[in-house]
């Protein structure tokens, strides 16, 4: 019998404790926590209060050293493809078209003054695969690849997680390819039409060498005779 009443007492005590915690949070909800960032040492020591954020209008700030969504500044990309080779899971896809001599000015330079020599019709980053290791950003010579502070980029369709950074449309890329092929074909024709340089046969070269050595020997004998 005593155990029966002891269990009732324990249940009532447990309910009272839980309700006390609930009421404490309920009354504290009239206050708001401060807006210290997650990197602030006082973040978890702030006054008790409402902690629910009005997402997406409000969001917890991300740490300055955090690695989140990978992005590319295509204006500074030179198409070296080092990031594509360095990526351990192949989430970066690049296609390049060599810039013709008359298009170098149009293609432009990077912010660091380096001339760009490739068009980039395709520069895709599959963020669904990206594991934010940062290897691609380390090898990038122009530092155009960065991990942005955007940490929430959920999508209903997985294809929307593939980000496109190319600087040419499909029609523009086809036009640039045709132009490059035409110039390469013309250069090959010009090279084929150019007059071939005469090539001395092995015998002619030997005869010319022997003749030169004979002349040099004769000059040397004449000089020695003159000295005597």
Automatic annotation (TrEMBL):
One of its GO terms (molecular function) is 4 iron, 4 sulfur cluster binding. Residues 180-228 are annotated as: Disordered. Residues 182-197 have a biased composition (Low complexity). PROSITE patterns: 4FE4S_FER_1, 4FE4S_FER_2. GO terms for cellular component: membrane. This is 4Fe-4S ferredoxin, iron-sulfur binding domain protein. It holds the Pfam family Fer4_7. Residues 68-97, 121-150 form the 4Fe-4S ferredoxin-type domain. The lineage of its organism: Bacteria, Pseudomonadati, Chlorobiota, Chlorobiia, Chlorobiales. Transmembrane segments: none annotated. InterPro entries: 4Fe4S_Fe-S-bd, 4Fe4S_Fe_S_CS, NADH_quinone_OxRdtase_chainI. PANTHER family: NADH DEHYDROGENASE UBIQUINONE IRON-SULFUR PROTEIN 8, MITOCHONDRIAL (PTHR10849). Residues 216-228 have a biased composition (Basic and acidic residues). Keywords: 4Fe-4S, Iron, Iron-sulfur, Metal-binding, Repeat.
């Amino acid at each position: 019998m005593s155990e029966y009443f002891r269990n009732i007492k324990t249940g009532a005590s447990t309910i009272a404790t839980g309700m006390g915690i609930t009421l404490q949070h309920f009354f504290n909800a009239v206050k708001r926590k401060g807006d210290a960032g997650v990197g602030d040492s006082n973040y978890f020591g702030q006054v008790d209060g409402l902690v629910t954020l009005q997402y997406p209008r409000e969001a917890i700030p991300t740490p300055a050293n955090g690695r989140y969504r990978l992005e590319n500044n295509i204006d500074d990309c030179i198409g070296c493809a080092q990031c594509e080779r360095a990526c351990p899971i192949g989430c970066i896809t690049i296609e390049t078209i060599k810039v013709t001599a008359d298009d170098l000015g149009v293609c432009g330079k990077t912010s660091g003054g380096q001339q760009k020599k490739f068009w980039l019709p395709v520069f895709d980053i599959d963020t669904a695969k990206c594991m934010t290791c940062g290897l691609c950003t380390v090898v990038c010579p122009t530092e155009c690849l960065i991990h942005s502070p955007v940490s929430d980029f959920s999508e209903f369709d997985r294809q929307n997680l593939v980000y496109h950074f190319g600087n040419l449309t499909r029609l523009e890329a086809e036009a640039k390819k045709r132009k490059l092929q035409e110039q390469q074909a013309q250069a090959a024709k010009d090279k084929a039409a150019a007059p071939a340089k005469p090539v001395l046969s092995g015998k002619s070269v030997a005869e010319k060498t022997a003749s030169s050595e004979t002349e040099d020997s004769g000059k040397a004998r004449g000089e020695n005779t003159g000295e005597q």
